[in-house]
Amino acid sequence: MNDQSTDSTDVLHAIAADRVLAVVRAPRVPDPAALCAALADGGIRTVEFTFTTPGVADVLAQAAAARRPGTHLGAGTVLTADQAAAAIDAGAEFLVTPALRPEVAKVAARAGIPVLMGALTPTEVLTAVELGAAAVKIFPAATFGPRYLKDLRGPFPDARLVPSGGVNAGNARAFLELGAFAVCCGTDVVPPDLVAAGGAEAEIRDRAAAFVERMTQD
Asked: Where exactly are the transmembrane stretches of this chain (predicted)?
């Protein structure tokens, strides 16, 4: 595995500061570096490319080769140890799973990078924490809403909960106000068709900026 040039805590610090990370789930990503730059210009410095995108290892490698200082790159929908290792080799600085995946957590721990592990129920949240998750991705968040996140915070006040799935500019602030460590933004900022078409960096930058503005406005 390649050495990681970024301390694992830097990723969490960036997510904590921005309180948002972008999840790119598209059939293709023509220019990963330009996409990441557009998101960063819009105020979202942490980007997750998912294994549902064909050839995602190449996408990660291209983005990593041109990664700006202060920005961070991760792999999502990581289901197996082999996928975890491939993502890290390609330059991923963090891993995200959609469910409890102990083998992925082990690979991340050996590499010294954080894993955001998917969970929904209290039992799953506790298991994710016990497996060493740096944060717990609550999915599907919009199905249960911000108040469900607040309820989870009761027994798990120290867990970093990151809602994902259906989070948009209209509900992101509510999740944050009720205890989310950060939120995941997806199609609201990086629509799959727009990403796949390429050449839409200006629009994606504007979408990111609009999301951040609504998320943080008083």
From this structure: none
